[in-house]
Predict the 3D structure of the following.
Amino acid sequence: MKSYASVLLLFGAMSCQFGEYDAPVILEKPDFQVEFFRADQSLFADDTLGLLGREPFSSNIDFTQVYVEKIMRFAPLESPMLNDQAALYTEDPIWKGVQHELDSIFSNLTEEEKLLESSLKQIAEKLPFVTVPRKVFFYNSGFNVAVYPEKEFLGIGLEWFMGNASEYVSMLPPSNYPMYKKKKMKRDNLVSDALRGFLLSSLYSPIVEENALSTMIFYGKCLFVLEQCSDLSEQEILNYTKEELNWASENENNTWKRLVAEEWLFSKDQKLMSQLTNNGPFTPGFPQDSPARLGWYTGYQMVKDFADAHQDENLKFIVDAPAEKVLKFYKP
């Protein structure tokens, strides 16, 4: 276990100031367009074709199988019970009501589609080793899965972004959907949540779980890539309110001191790693007015400082940097 003093020595000499990093474009003008599909509206279509007879389900079997079997947990694609199960769902008054509200709230998704496509193209330009999905499916999952990232497609459950004023969101049981979670279920978070989910899946490797430091820096790298490949604000990238971001910024030094003093950085305790990075009303081990996921915030600041010190390197260099190397450049 590394001591407080030895950790401080890792970066104590790093007092010089660096410029702000700007990731270079590696792949000029990637040759693809992103296709968008309203699978939710197709599911609730009033016709006799059956689920597999409708677009986009009929011509996108990879997505359809995931949606049917993993997201909705209906019968397998080849089952004769599939259409009956889908009909039971779409004829249920509650889920019909949810879809009616989705049709109203998301009658136009042009702005979200524009932001998603722009960001996915920037990821392809600046991190060409990442396989970027060419298709985005908006679906209604009955509050099962908010974001489902795959190499071929990105799935987004629209009902997760209806807004906490929705009567259907308010009906969700607090045991599984506490208030802190409901407050985040708003349209403004759709693009950032979807892109973040895609990056967390795409950049993951087993080394992430080596210790708390590796875990925090992994999240920090994903957030940093999102910053470099989108027009999202820091608040949107972190999924923080203005007040939460202010608290994290004003208490960054105190957060760091506690992480070091408690010798949490090199801990392999899975529970601790979850406490630092999971959603919640606050971050366990810190004041109750703190925001959740302070491990995200700290890892993000570490990666930003590391990138600022390596202006001439591409984004892959930043993503591939070992956690302890990143730590040496952190200036809380």
Remarks:
- Residues 61 and 87 are 19 Å apart (CA to CA).
- The beta strands are 35-38, 135-139, 147-149, 153-157.
- The longest strand covers residues 135-139.
- The mean pLDDT is 94.
